[in-house]
Design brief:
binds NADP nicotinamide-adenine-dinucleotide phosphate, alpha/beta, 28% strand, binds L-homoserine, eleven-stranded mixed sheet, 37% helix
Length: 431
């Protein structure tokens, strides 16, 4: 009997595109038994045909003309792996309008235009799937939309950027300073030539926007996520955090509270006993809390050629199954609520504060008076032995305080003559 074939096209043949091409090849033998059909890559959109030719068995599949894919009625699935906003957005919208299913790993696009893309897919009665857009190879979008649908999720948080986790791991385990750890990440190919999106937290922010939208059934866009990167973290902060029983991780946190959604990315102290504290190197992990499931954690490779391709191909196979069962567009946009997203100033957190103060009697009392004025309660305070230019170094951990109050307290402290420098101000993860 002749094997059934579903035709697909790839847009982009970079790291992930090449991975998808390889994974589909590796699956060829079992594919029909597994999903009832073969998936054939009929066309691949690239910019440079010559450069791409070395990556494929048959270079006749390569094209630099998008219209050849859009106008080919035999192509059922478009797999967008070019990245960026344009022309990806235009191509995806056109493909959906033309009745083609789309798979994308493009978090930059989905974190801003997710609603538009999902609405277009719904209108056209096709699937738009994006498992690889968050935490690469780790399944999290489908688990949230399907396996965990019987929950009211209250928290989804985790380590969703491998580059920064690698850097922080090196700083923790080998005492490296940020710049040396970044240089090593670049040398080993973890960090991009321009690492800004990773080290400034933007990449993680996009993933948090998508995670929050899916987990809480209410749209959160990239601009609504508060973001701080890891560039100001020093080896000393990490050492002091360790002394206090904590590690420092770049965490993406989204919480569904009674008064709205909290969504932020920042370096945070997390107790060393928390499962996320032992997620090291370039690994990612997402931790969720639902009213029925309680805690669940998803761990694995958040990036890379084959791990990311694993998630993309999973989406493609899902679509093939839907096509065969005649049930496409079964799970589209799940944002049926409109919850407000809280400003960072309205959130409550614990803080780790490292500051240089004049080394004289009464300075601590002065500091704590400022704290008291703005409802900042001290949970731990340590004066370090080290003296820098006649200053004492003081480390404080606060109880939970409203961010707005804490910032005002910091402004006032900064203006005090006795406070020479506020060296670090980091949040401490607490339930
Ligand atoms: P990449 O290596 O830079 O590959 C992108 C490819 O798309 C390149 O081959 C590029 O061609 C091609 N391209 C870009 N614009 C194009 C256009 N207008 N027409 C035709 N081809 C075009 O990127 P990647 O790492 O594979 O990432 C792809 C997507 O997956 C991004 O959305 C990214 O955020 C997402 N993602 C990546 C990872 C990962 O581990 N890399 C993980 C999760 C998600 P040129 O070579 O000619 O520039
Ligand atoms: N640059 C990202 C990371 C991978 O370091 O995790 C793509 O999302």
């Amino acid at each position: 009997m002749e094997e059934k074939v579903i035709n697909a096209a790839l847009l982009g043949l970079g790291t992930v595109g090449t991975g998808v091409y390889k994974v589909l090849k590796n699956q060829e033998q079992e594919m029909t038994a597994k999903i009832g059909s073969q998936v054939k890559i009929r066309k691949i959109l690239v910019r440079n045909l010559e450069k791409a030719a070395a990556k494929v068995e048959d270079s006749s599949v390569l094209t630099n003309q998008w219209e050849e894919i859009l106008n080919d009625p035999s192509i059922d699935i478009v797999i967008e792996l070019m990245g960026g906003i344009e022309p990806a957005r235009t191509y995806i919208l056109a493909a959906l309008k033309a009745g083609k299913h789309v798979v994308s790993a493009n978090k930059d696009l989905i974190a801003v235009y997710g609603k538009e893309l999902l609405d277009e897919a719904e209108a056209a009665g096709v699937d738009f799937l994006f498992e690889a857009a968050v935490a690469g190879g780790i399944p999290i979008i489908r688990p949230l939309k399907q396996c965990l649908a019987g929950n009211h999720m209250s928290e989804v948080m985790g380590i969703v950027n491998g580059t920064t986790n690698f850097i922080l791991t090196k700083m923790t385990q080998e005492g490296m300073e940020f710049s040396d750890a970044l240089a090593l990440a670049t040398e080993l190919g973890y960090a991009e030539a321009d690492p800004t999106a990773d080290i400034e937290g933007l990449d993680a922010g996009r993933k948090v926007a998508i995670l929050a939208s899916v987990a809480f059934n209410s749209r959160v866009v990239f601009d609504e996520v508060y973001i701080e990167g890891i560039t100001k973290i020093s080896a000393k902060d990490i050492r002091y955090a360790k002394e206090m029983g904590c590690d420092i991780k770049l965490l993406g946190v989204a919480r569904c509270m009674d008064d709205g959604i909290e969504a932020y990315v920042c370096p945070m102290l997390i107790p060393s006993v928390h499962p996320l504290a032992s997620v090291n190197d370039s690994y990612n992990a997402v931790f969720v809390h639902g009213d029925a499931v309680e805690d669940a954690m998803f761990f694995g490779r958040g990036a890379g050629e084959l791990p990311t391709a694993s998630a993309v191909v999973g989406d493609v196979f899902d679509i093939v199954r839907n096509i065969q069962a005649g049930c496409c567009a079964r799970i589209g946009c799940t944002c049926y609520k409109k919850l407000p997203v809280k400003k960072m100033e309205e959130t409550y957190n614990r803080y780790f504060l490292r500051l240089q103060v004049e080394d004289r009697c009464g300075v601590l009392a002065e500091m704590t008076a400022v704290f008291a004025k703005y409802h900042v309660s001290v949970a731990q305070i340590i004066q370090k032995e080290t003296k820098v230019e006649d200053c004492a170094e003081v480390v404080v951990i606060t109880a939970k305080v409203k961010e707005g109050d804490f910032r005002t307290a910091m402004e006032e402290l900064r203006n005090r003559e006795s406070v020479r420098k506020i060296s670090s101000m980091l949040r401490v993860y607490a339930k």
